[in-house]
Amino acid sequence: MKGALTWPFLRLYILALFFFSANAILNVMIPLRGHDLGANNTTIGIIMGAYMLTAMVFRPWAGQLISQIGPLKILRIILVINGIALVIYSFTELEGYFIARIMQGICTAFFSMSLQIGIIDALPEKDRSQGISLYSLFSYMPGIIGPIIAVNIWHTNDMSYFMIIMIAIALITAVFGFSATMDSEERQTEPNLEKTPYGPVSVFMQFFKNPHLLKSGIIMLVASIGFGAVTTFIPLFTLQTKMGNAGTFLMLQAITVVLSRFYLRKIIPSDGKWHVKFMMSILCVLMVSTGLIGLSPYIGVVALYVGAVLVGISQAMIYPTLTSFLSFVLPKAGRNMLIGLFIATADLGVSLGGVLMGPIADLTSYHMMYLICTLFIASIMFYSYEKRPSFIEGAVKTD
What parts of the sequence cross the membrane (predicted)? Predict the structure, then answer.
């Protein structure tokens, strides 16, 4: 094996698999548990959205702090905090869930930034998109079995199983993470601080000043609203309509993401150019998927499950495509902070998928909420169309 499939990178992917295992269960368990406790869609959306909203706030600075303290020390600190958060889930209710989601958001900001920046910096240009795609693949693999576990726990109505699983995941992740070594850090003899022209506040202004970051960020933001709405409300959507099974839906979605990110990873552009037809095509897939989910009460359960597969395909392709594009066209000075800012737009979108779409679901209905998501995605599909040669040939013009 070579490139993105060598053992040092595989070890990082496996750690990501363990780290994100709990979330695959919590994404289903929290909405179902919140419904049992009498929470409305708005409250459930806020609790679910707190995770990504917190991650969004911390991501732009995570790269710099990691370079100052060191990735290994940061990793061990966040694994302890993440373990405490998972234990909190096991014996509290909605208020505790909110606090634990915030703690998880902080951990995820530093964990994912350190791994993704390391992959981008270590791999040659031709392998960047594959490395990012494989990292995303392993972080999503727990979604294959996690939703089924969550639904089964909820049906047993015995929270002791939930407590045991959360504690077990915390311990396994900590043991694996604490035993990890980073050769680059062990050889480091002096601080390697990133030289960046951006301050902790001025970095946010770059989102509007850099046309590549602005376009990619807006597309990722709106697409992630769709992803967040699906993840947060599918358990309650299937419960209300009595059509399909949330665990089966999310399992199909996760399997599709995993297979797509592995078998389709080589077709993801990795040349720093804006591929208009490719981007519009994958956004069209996402638009059709949310439309099928919204119309499934009238079309049938097959539409719901086809929607799950199409969501998985789009989710597998959009993020690594945009991240790879930005890794070429963003200036090297402060690139880590700018990529962190882009990832923050994905976090914000997933958060808004719960926080914004929850009240819309309360005011209208679940199927109408998904149709509104479809209109949002249709708008960014046309927004992604770009004629300017200076934008399409981004890598050439910004080097």
Answer: 12-30, 42-62, 74-92, 98-120, 132-154, 160-178, 218-237, 276-299, 305-330, 337-361, 367-385
Query: What is the distance, to the nearest Å, from the Cα of residue 146 to the centroid of all Cα atoms in its chain?
Result: 16
Tell me, what DSSP letter sits at residue 190? S
What is the reported pTM? 0.79
Whether the CB-CB separation of 270 and 281 falls below 8 Å is answered with no
> How far is 146 from 142, CA to CA, in rounded Å?
6
CA distance 67 to 74: 10
CB contact at 8 A, 329 and 398: yes
pLDDT at 190 over 70: no
The interaxial angle of helices 335-355 and 211-241, nearest 10 deg, is 30
Average pLDDT, the chain: 84
Helix axes 211-241, 246-263, angle to 10 degrees: 150
For residues 72 and 152, the answer to whether their CB atoms sit within 8 Å is no
Instruction: Report domain extents, the chain.
Output: 3-188+199-398
In angstroms, the CA 336 to CA 113 distance is: 9
Q: At what angle do helices 211-241 and 366-383 cross, to 10 degrees?
A: 160
Q: Give first-to-last CA distance, the chain, whole Å.
A: 31
State the fold for domain 3-188+199-398. Growth Hormone; Chain: A; (1.20.1250)
Q: What is the DSSP letter of 194?
A: P
Q: Which two tokens stand for residue 98?
A: 């909110």
Beta carbons within 10 angstroms of residue 280's beta carbon: 17
Helix, strand counts (H, E) of the chain = 19, 0
